[in-house]
Amino acid sequence: MAKVKIPVNKVQELRVICKKFNNDPGELINVLHEAQNLLGYLPAEVQEIVAEELNVSVAHVYGVVTFYSFFSMLPKGKHPISICMGTACYVRGAEKVLEEFKRRLDIKVGETTPDGKFSLSCLRCVGACGLAPVITIGERVYGRVSPEDVKKILDEY
Amino acid sequence: MNIIKLIIDDKPVVVEQGTTILEAAKSIGIKIPSLCYMKMDDLNFENKPGGCRVCVIEVEGRRNLAPACKTECTEGMVVKTHTVRVINARRTVVELILSDHPAECLTCAKSGECELQELAQNLGIREIHYTGEQSHYKGDQSPAIIREMDKCIMCRRCETICNEVQTVGVLSAVNRGFESVVAPAFEMDLDHSVCTYCGQCVAVCPTGALTERDYTWKVIEALVDPQKTVVVQTAPAVRAALGEAFGMEPGTLVTGKMVSALKKLGFDYVFDTDFAADLTIMEEGTEFLDRLTRYLDGDKSVKLPILTSCCPAWVKFFEHQFPEMIDIPSTAKSPQQMFGAIAKSYFAKKLNKKREDLVVVSVMPCLAKKYECTREEFAINGDADVNVSITTRELARLIRNANIDFASLDDEDFDQPLGESTGAGVIFGTTGGVIEAAVRTAYELHTGKHLEKVEFEELRGMEGLRKATVDFDGMKLNIGIAHGLGNARKLLEDVRAGKSEFHAIEIMACPGGCIGGGGQPYHHGNVDILKKRQKAIYREDAGKAIRKSHENPFIQELYSEFLGRPLSDLSHELLHTHYFNRKKLSEIE
């Protein structure tokens, strides 16, 4: 396991997040959400701190982190790209869009470009099925994306 | 309590509200097949994720089949457990499980004891109609436990016992869908985790996904080496369970046959860990009295309660989970390690041999003992005090391999001097036994009076947490007993909070104590087997001529010839140890 040294102030912020949720084991998912917002991802050390604060086993935290595709143990790019693979997007060609992103960025799903600019992941439905196929980059949502749009979208960043 | 009447397979049943169909059926002799389900009432263990769907049954008026393990009985319910629809569904379920299971039954360590194999046989499955992708996970070999997760059926029993009963928290289901697997955090190997090697996950695993690391071949190699004198020691709980491996009734004592089999296997000396248990009592009991006396004299540097330290899983548990309290347990080594240290010093000297010429094998009901004997502090110049530790199950395999008809063996006696033991040594095998043995000796040493009745019924039982007050001639001693690491944790947390009322606490990691160890013949969730083993242990004690450790003549001889007295310098060197602040997860890597 690659060792990551989290800055001391971030560790403190992490503990504050746990405290905000009263160190309640039932709030694990919410804590992990905020922790990922704070750091961009959830390395092993973060999971250990959360486990300690919430008094649950690290294995349990890891189980939750690996269960939900939203959580990532790898640092995301500056602009995280998510391709919706939900049913509506899928039947309207999301896979071709994904292939185009993979080709242009030369990375696989779950990876980050060497310059740290983009990362690629898949998700299941962002609740905008009327705009299928949908992708998100950071907080921004793009609808009715075709493979031909990919270059133009990437050039925006 | 509401009473509910229902009909299962045309038979009327009356049950209390809240009873599941599976339990109701069982009460009238209908055994609905199940796989993931396991319940052990006395041990607070219940695993019913309802995931495998093997126990499906048909309920009249209900459209879908229902899992019997999770469906509660309701008034007037009509249940059918073996309609064509049910049988077809059950077969489909099992075939689907088998379609992602390695067909390695001929060479699998669990063959013959595997619940999936038994189920497939009972259902008469001769063909698997489904082919698809097969799961492939990396293997994991620790000194004690082997994980072959390709054979896992995701029943989650191991996860339940590790988290809820033992509160060790090593195992969790990780990933999702087809990728899911039960694993330690970050999918690291067990020896990079806080695993205690208690082996309870192995004890409840229905398939060959979790098994013990088998060292039988190492034993055979030692036995055929003419340069080596091979000495074996057998733990108390082994004799109360080994018979089960040869089809005998649980609770059958096979001490004499076991000794006979070990001699036939070619061990040069067949000794008894019970002897070392007596020695443990001498050291631990004396240490306890010393601490108690100083405590009562107002010595503030002395900490009570004293905690027993015989159980290696328990030792590793507190090293990881309560590292700030490692000065509280007794410093006495476990009987296995005391035996090894004495065999390779005192006994080697008697034989006029070097310690390296001796191979010490232990037969244990335990998987953690395999780990314990590899701990660095229990070796001199790389030569371990105990070279190989095998389980009750492995001994059974060795006996079969040597073409020995176990049932027809005549009884034989242990060799001397390290084979003589008292009833106090024997009861080390069950929860409550170590502390009862200690009380028998400590009482006489402290009061100077003869103890008329050696049985302390108040210390016996199967409850997970017990407490008793023992009268030491006017001085009341509060004793706590815990078996199962979750129960131990409760007592430890009280100690840490300064709320503990106890002077001494006995802890064993496995439910039931060593009789329920992870290396014993599989109990398949039947707690009655543990109770029968426990009774057998007390029967063996009752039949012993000597029942107090300090009256063991060979223990007395060991002290007069060699050690001097309990807690002497030599005793400290050979029979006592120290504990480590075990690192947390990220520091382990």
From TrEMBL, chain A:
Task: Give the Pfam families listed for this entry.
Answer: 2Fe-2S_thioredx
**Cofactors named for this entry:** [2Fe-2S] cluster
Q: Which UniProt keywords apply?
A: 2Fe-2S, Iron, Iron-sulfur, Metal-binding
Q: Where does [2Fe-2S] cluster bind?
A: C84, C89, C125, C129
Write out the GO MF terms. 2 iron, 2 sulfur cluster binding; metal ion binding; oxidoreductase activity
The domain of life is Bacteria
Per the annotation, how and in what number is the cofactor bound? Binds 1 [2Fe-2S] cluster.
Record-stated family? Belongs to the complex I 24 kDa subunit family.
Question: What is the recorded name of this protein?
Answer: NADH-quinone oxidoreductase subunit E/NADP-reducing hydrogenase subunit HndA
- List the source organism: Thermophagus xiamenensis
Q: What is the lineage of its organism?
A: Bacteria, Pseudomonadati, Bacteroidota, Bacteroidia, Marinilabiliales
UniProtKB/TrEMBL annotation, chain B:
Q: Could you tell me the keywords of this UniProt record? A: 2Fe-2S, 4Fe-4S, Iron, Iron-sulfur, Metal-binding, Oxidoreductase, Repeat
Name the SMART domains on file.
Answer: Fe_hyd_SSU, NADH-G_4Fe-4S_3
**Cross-referenced SUPFAM superfamilies, in alphabetical order?**
2Fe-2S ferredoxin-like, 4Fe-4S ferredoxins, Fe-only hydrogenase
Q: Any keyword Manganese?
A: no
The record ties this protein, via Gene3D superfamilies, to: 3.10.20.740, 3.30.70.20, 3.40.50.1780, Fe-only Hydrogenase (Larger Subunit), Chain L, domain 3, Iron hydrogenase, small subunit
4Fe-4S ferredoxin-type domain sequence ranges: 143-173, 186-215
Where in the numbering of this chain does the 2Fe-2S ferredoxin-type domain appear? 2-85
Keyword presence, Plastid: no
Q: Which taxonomic lineage does the organism of this UniProt entry have?
A: Bacteria, Pseudomonadati, Bacteroidota, Bacteroidia, Marinilabiliales
User: What's the protein called, per UniProt?
Assistant: NAD(P)-dependent iron-only hydrogenase catalytic subunit
